[in-house]
Input
Amino acid sequence: MKRKIVTTLLCAAMTIGLLAGCGNSGDSGTADTEASAQEEEATDTKAADTGDMVTVSLYIPTLAPYTDEAIMEVQDAINAHLAENYGIQTKLVYIEIGNFDQSINLAMTTDELDVTCYFPENTPLATYVNNGQLLDITDYFENASDELKNTFTEAEIKASSVNGRMYGLVRKYQYGGYEVAVLNKDIVEEMGIDPAGITDMESLGEVLYQVHEAHPDIYALVPQSTNEMSWIQPWVKRVGLTSFAYTNDLDSTEIQSVFETDTFKEFCGYTHQWYQDGLIMQDAISNTQEGTSMVTAGAAFATLHNADVDPLEALYPNTVSTGVIIPPQSAPSDIGNLQYGISTNSAHPEESFTLLSALYTDAELHTLLSFGIEGKHYVIDEDGRADYPEGMTAETEPYGGFAATATYPNYLLNPVKASATVDDYKAAVEEWSTKVKMPAVFGFYFDTSEYGDFVTAYKNLEEKYYEPLRTGSVGLDDVLPDIKSELEAIGFYEVIEKMQGELDAYLAK
Output
């Protein structure tokens, strides 16, 4: 679970520490002067209270719009809580998710980044470790509170470890998901479309052609996020917590190149035909927007989307969801596909771990960070559920975390939203896990620490072909011979043969 999500995303990173409150610059009379003096005195008092405290930065990817003012208000509230309970301060750094990997890789070369989210599904955990980018937190974790240690299962700890050493904490979330398409509600109602009748790629395509004919001025289908056609895959991906090994389906134990699996070929067959027929945006490979934002705004009719315990209609205004295209399933890489860790170059590792630990155990802190300030960015209704303040919606509420909490460390700590179909997130996630079908290879781990050059070479190869094929802008049959030659050249089939032997031995146990 790689990586998103309501309206137009932020276009650039908002480095909060560089923002400052602005006062009036002109001479506006004695009253304003006195007010300014009082404000300055209050600021000086606050600085005196926290001036000796270490400030650690927290890098978070944005899934929805945030205003600078709202972020500063939440940061102030968080710092008041941190000062009272932990004796530290934080600087919130929000970065648009499409630019997040690149931004943190750059920030990790400095001491500006302390605690950060990262996506092992995009960059394998072993790569971060081999590059010396993440701090080994094993000793910190072993000496942490029982509350923190009991938060994670053995599988979750393993997912954040390399060679038995921990380098982060995985997001607490439901693992796996099911595939649907999110459709523009206005067009659905206008054309009398039955969303529930869309249950596979074939039936989705039939509707896309109808909409394209009726509304040729909008995109019939857009990627889910940037150039990613869909987060969830119609195949089991990344066996052994690697970035390069796949199986064809949930029951398969044969490791393959993703490009050679039948399910990948089938998916790309649909998208390539749709792309050629003008259903998919022609510049999809360079897209920078969220699909749901375009669908909500009416710039597109549909986008593929993964769903879980929360109804998508509540997250994305003016949309409806189709029937289930792919039933609930979990890929081997779902556990640990989003983690939080500490940069090796952090100047304050102990304080950073204090913040990291609190993010997973302190409900008040986590709710502040992900929902914002109660009464201003969200309210608690008479049923004890969180909702938008009166008159606000996902599009107008200034602190976007309430709309999309997927990238925060432990949403199970938050109050249940009014829109939720469950009464208790933790109980719902535990129940959800009983419905999700797990792959036959789940739990298998392949040590890639000795394959750094190969992993890098494969990543470059997949980046070259993967999304162009999935968006349909390139036909798989046209490039598959070249792909196989390049796989052979980097030693892919030799690595897979060794990995297959280890998997077979693991399954034999």
Summary: The two ends are 28 Å apart (CA to CA). The mean pLDDT is 86. The longest strand covers residues 55-62. Residues 1-18+46-174+335-431 form a domain with the D-Maltodextrin-Binding Protein; domain 2 fold (CATH 3.40.190.10).
